[in-house]
Design brief:
two-stranded antiparallel sheet; 11% strand
């Protein structure tokens, strides 16, 4: 997988993990589940259950946030590998919580918690 998609999967995984402990989680989970239904590998209902399970493990302290980020990054990378055209929706997910600023040739995201 190209470096840009790996970075995108990582940003989306971190955003999803951060959203797990907010009131916005249910809405966010539904949004990513819609994307999985359309393009993702695996059964969407299973994906929603796995996301809920990851959230519970995070809240209960069974996994660290970094472990959950890595798990979600892997899932998003699988989705992008299955359909690279899903990139715009993943970008929307990755930057759902931050303010985006264009800086020179790249961009900067400031996450607000």
């Amino acid at each position: 997988m190209e470096a840009e998609l790996v970075a995108l999967a990582s940003a989306a995984g971190a955003t999803l993990a951060g959203l797990m402990v907010t009131d916005a989680w249910e809405r966010s989970k539904k949004g990513i589940a819609v994307l999985w239904r359309r393009v993702g590998p695996g059964e969407p209902t299973v994906v929603e259950c796995e996301l809920d399970d990851a959230r519970e493990r995070l809240i209960r302290g069974q996994n660290t946030e970094q472990e959950i980020v890595e798990e979600l990054t892997r899932r998003v990378a699988e989705l992008l590998a299955a359909d690279p055209q899903a990139k715009p929706e993943v970008v929307a997910t990755a930057y759902a919580r931050g303010r985006n600023y264009v800086v020179g040739r790249g961009s900067m995201v400031i996450n607000e918690r």
